[in-house]
Amino acid sequence: MLTTVATALAGLVGVAVIFMGALPFWAPRAAAGFGIPDTPTEDRSFRAWLTVKAMRDLACGLFVFVLLVGGTPHLLGWFILVMAVIPAGDALIVLRSNGPKATAYGVHGATAAVMLAISVPLLIA
Questions:
Q1: Are 58 and 18 in contact (CB under 8 A)?
Q2: CA-to-CA distance for 51 and 22, rounded, in angstroms?
Q3: What is the tally of structural domains in the chain?
């Protein structure tokens, strides 16, 4: 039962990551919600970087679904655990950029913690 819930939550993580990857293509100003102050969304160089990040997010989200369809819960658990490094790193980036601590901990840190919690039942399955 716990593995089924964790698998469903992993699917929601995949959907969320795909959404975050697609968002910059139609709403680049949403990048300001990442937590880095004075995000230059009109700058062409920044938008190029944002597109690279978006493509990586899309690929990570899609990979969750590849594992949901063709992998084992244990392998999915390892992938979710490794993916938790991304929001943990994002929290550090926001903090080092003097961004809002609420965003660093409340968005990125909480996301990392949720992903860790999802990975545990999958890893022990």
A1: yes
A2: 9
A3: 1
Residue type, 34: F
Give the tokens for residue 19: 């959404």
Q: For residues 11 and 63, is the Cβ–Cβ distance under 8 A?
A: no
Q: Please tell me the distance from the alpha carbon of residue 62 to that of residue 101, in angstroms, as a whole number.
A: 30
3-state class of 36 per DSSP? coil
Task: Give pTM, 2 decimals.
Answer: 0.90
pLDDT digits (tens, 9 = 90+) for 6-23: 999 999 999 999 999 999
Q: CA 81 to CA 93: how far, in whole Å?
A: 19
Helix axes 44-70, 2-26, angle to 10 degrees: 150
Q: What is the residue range of 82's domain?
A: 2-123
